[in-house]
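Subject: sequence -> structure tokens, single chain

Hey, anyone have a minute? Need the predicted structure for the following. Not urgent.
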Amino acid sequence: MRDTPNTRNMPHPTPHTHSERPFGYRTGDRGEFLRSVGETVQLTEHILAVRVGEGDPRAMLGEFRRTAVLVPRNEAGVLAGMSGGIQWIYAFTDEERLARFAAARGAPPDAEVPYHVLLGARLLDVVVPEAGVPTGVALDVADAERAMLFPPVTGIVPDQAADRETADEMLREGP
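Reply:
Had a minute. Here:
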């Protein structure tokens, strides 16, 4: 995917870097940062099952909507790439996968990566429609076994943000 700066009027939640504790997360007894591990594990399990043809895509989508994801940001908004005429917003289930993505793009290992923490539902229902162009979510794209795309089609994004051409192409190609 080719990265494109997102210059549209996108919502800007409180930004974070990989070393900050985002609002809504708790810390352990010693103050260490704890993610909502159970939700992330469940989402990952759904993705793996769907990828091998044994899972329920609707259950996976529901789990994504309930999971907090990390969305890298840049000066213009959220980091996104273009592929097949669709803008794909990058999102990650944890800092390790976000760091792997940054490293694959040439960032030094100790580089801070600024990001937003959003529920998948907010990403799909608010950020995607405000993009103004066909936009989907590319989850964990630096991890070939766990990557998943949430395209801009009815049932995933709100109807006003759905792209009919993408839906038609998906129907032609099949699962």
